[in-house]
Amino acid sequence: MKLLELMTTEGCHLCDQALPLLVEGIDPAKFEVDLVDIAFEDELMNQYATRIPVLVEPQTKQYLDWPFDAAQLAQFIESIEGQ
Predict the structure, then answer these.
(1) Packing angle between helix 13-25 and helix 70-81, nearest 10 degrees?
(2) Which pTM does this prediction carry?
(3) What does the pLDDT look like over 10-42, one tens digit per residue?
(4) How many CA atoms lie within 13 A of 1 on its CB side?
């Protein structure tokens, strides 16, 4: 199973919009998505504060910035599946 991280924070309305896309577009048998609250690490705040939600594949550092739709999510998932 491959790990993905969703950079988010409490009260992020854009993150709330992204979550249903992730539930619909990511196979839970292949991927686990951890929610990472950027508010607790200065480095993450500096990197993602104006970009969240951001879906990150932590091993390769590939990412998908918001806004994304179901087709863009599918393309991202396809690009990281073989790695």
Answers:
(1) 60
(2) 0.95
(3) 999 999 999 999 999 999 999 999 999 999 999
(4) 11
* Residue 51: predicted pLDDT: 96
Are the beta carbons of 28 and 56 closer than 8 angstroms?
no
DSSP string, 60-82: TTEEEESS--HHHHHHHHHHHHT
Give, rounded to a whole angstrom, the gap between the first and last alpha carbons of the chain: 12
Q: Compute the Cα dihedral for 42, 23, 73, 1 and give only its sign.
A: positive
b/e code 59-74 from CB counts within 10 Å (16+ = b): eeeebbebebeeeebe
Strand partners, 67: none
